[in-house]
C-alpha cells in the first residue's frame, strides 16, 4: 500500500529535507509514539509464543504505520527501537525501517517501511513493505514493488549511479540461511522497485544475488568503500558429493567480489584480499574478520 503526503519547504536546497529541525512540539509527539513502540517492541521480541508474536507485531505495525504517515517522521531518529533495522541512504533521499519475526517452526517473516523524499517535487512518500517471499520460486530473478516485496533484513545501503545496492540477511529455515545483494531503484514517478539487472555474472542474468549456506556458520558479505567492491566468502559444500545441498555449505577460506565499474557490478572470482588495491591505490586491505550474525529474535 502506498501513502503520499505533500511537504512544503522554505529552502530550495536539495538536502533541505535532511536538515530541518523539529520543533519541541513535534519532538514530544514522536517521542510519545516512540515510547509506545518501545514498549510493544519489548514484548514482541521477548515472547516465545507465536500467537502473541502475531498480536504484538500487528499492534507494532499499526502504530508505526500511523506514526510514519506524519511527514516530519523522516527527521525523527527513533533511536530506542534498537531491535529493528533503521537505515538511511548515503544521499539522505530515503530511509528503510525493517524487522523480522521468527516462528517456532523455523520460518521467518519480514516487515518494513520505506520513506522517500523527492527534492525536485518536494514530495514525501512512504511505502509499506509487504513480504511475498513465500510465493517466489526464483529469488534471483524476481522483481517486486513494495506491496510485492521479497522480504529480507537489510543492513547496508550503497549509493550507485542511478540505483542503490542493498546488503541483507534472511533466516530462511532451520537448515539454511541466506544473504543477498539486492537492488533498489526508483521509477520516474518515484515508485520504488526491488530487483534490477545490474550484475555481470557468468551464465546468469540475475536481478539480485543470493548466497545460501548452513545455519551453523557465519558468512561475511561486506562493502569495502575504499576499493569500491563487495567482498564475500566463497561458499562450498563440505564434500563434493554434497553439491547443491546448501545446509552443508560454508566458507572455504577463499574470497570472491563484485567490483563496481561503469555503473554495474562485475563478478571477480578468487581475489587476494591482502593484495588487491583500492580505487586510489593508496591503502592495502587488511583481512576482514567474520561479521557478527544479524539479530534474530530468540
Describe what you observe in this structure.
The chain is an alpha+beta fold and about 300 residues long. The protein has one domain. About 15% of the residues lie in helices and about 35% in strands. It contains three helices and 15 strands. It has helices at about 15-20, 25-45, 50-70; strands spanning about 1-5, 85-90, 95-100, 110-120, 125-130, 155-160, 165-170, 175-185, 190-195, 200, 210-215, 220-225, 230-235, 250-260, 265-270. The strands form three sheets. It has a five-stranded antiparallel beta sheet with strand order 1-5-4-3-2, covered by helices on one side. Strands 6, 7, 8, 9 and 11 form a five-stranded antiparallel beta sheet that branches. Strand 4 and strand 5 form a beta hairpin. Helix 2 (about 25-45) runs antiparallel to helix 3. The chain is globular, with a radius of gyration of 20 Å.
Short description:
By secondary structure, the protein is α+β, with helices and mostly antiparallel strands. It is built from three helices and 15 strands.
Report mean pLDDT, rounded to a whole number.
87
- Which class do the helix and strand fractions yield? alpha+beta
In whole angstroms, how far apart are the ends?
30 Å
Order of helices and strands: EHHHEEEEEEEEEEEEEE
Strand order in the sheet with the most strands: 1-5-4-3-2
SS element count, helices? 3
Taken from the alpha-carbon principal axes, the silhouette is globular
Low-confidence stretches: 1-18, 281-298
Residue share in helix: 10-25%
Strand content: 35-45%
Count every beta strand, where a strand is a DSSP E run of 2 or more residues.
Answer: 15
Amino acid at each position: 500500500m502506498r501513502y503520499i503526503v505533500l511537504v512544503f519547504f522554505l529552502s530550495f536546497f536539495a538536502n533541505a529535507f535532511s536538515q530541518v529541525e523539529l520543533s519541541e512540539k513535534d519532538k514530544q509527539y514522536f517521542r510519545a509514539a516512540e515510547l509506545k513502540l518501545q514498549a510493544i517492541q519489548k514484548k514482541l521480541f521477548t515472547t516465545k509464543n507465536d500467537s502473541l508474536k502475531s498480536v504484538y507485531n500487528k499492534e507494532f505495525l499499526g502504530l508505526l504505520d500511523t506514526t510514519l504517515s506524519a511527514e516530519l517522521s523522516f527527521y525523527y531518529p527513533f533511536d530506542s527501537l534498537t531491535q529493528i533495522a533503521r537505515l538511511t541512504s548515503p544521499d539522505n533521499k530515503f530511509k528503510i525501517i525493517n524487522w523480522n519475526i521468527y516462528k517456532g517452526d523455523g520460518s521467518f517473516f519480514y516487515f518494513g517501511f520505506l520513506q522517500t523524499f523527492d527534492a525536485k517535487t518536494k514530495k514525501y512518500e512512504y511505502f509499506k513493505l509487504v513480504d511475498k517471499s513465500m510465493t517466489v520460486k526464483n529469488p534471483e530473478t524476481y522483481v517486486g514493488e513494495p506491496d510485492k516485496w521479497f522480504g529480507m533484513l537489510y543492513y547496508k545501503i550503497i549509493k550507485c549511479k542511478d540505483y542503490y545496492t542493498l546488503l541483507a540477511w534472511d533466516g530462511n529455515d532451520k537448515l539454511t540461511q541466506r544473504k543477498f545483494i539486492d537492488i533498489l531503484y526508483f521509477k520516474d514517478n518515484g515508485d520504488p522497485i526491488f530487483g534490477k539487472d545490474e550484475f555481470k555474472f557468468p551464465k546468469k542474468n540475475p536481478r539480485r544475488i543470493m548466497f545460501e549456506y548452513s545455519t551453523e556458520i557465519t558468512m561475511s558479505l561486506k562493502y569495502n568503500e575504499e576499493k569500491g567492491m563487495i567482498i564475500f566468502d566463497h561458499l562450498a559444500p563440505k564434500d563434493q558429493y554434497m553439491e547443491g545441498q546448501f545446509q552443508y555449505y560454508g566458507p572455504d577460506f577463499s574470497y570472491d567480489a563484485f567490483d563496481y565499474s561503469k555503473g554495474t557490478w562485475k563478478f571477480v572470482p578468487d581475489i587476494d584480499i591482502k593484495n588487491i588495491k583500492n580505487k586510489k591505490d593508496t591503502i592495502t586491505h587488511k583481512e576482514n574478520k567474520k561479521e557478527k550474525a544479524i539479530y534474530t529474535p530468540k
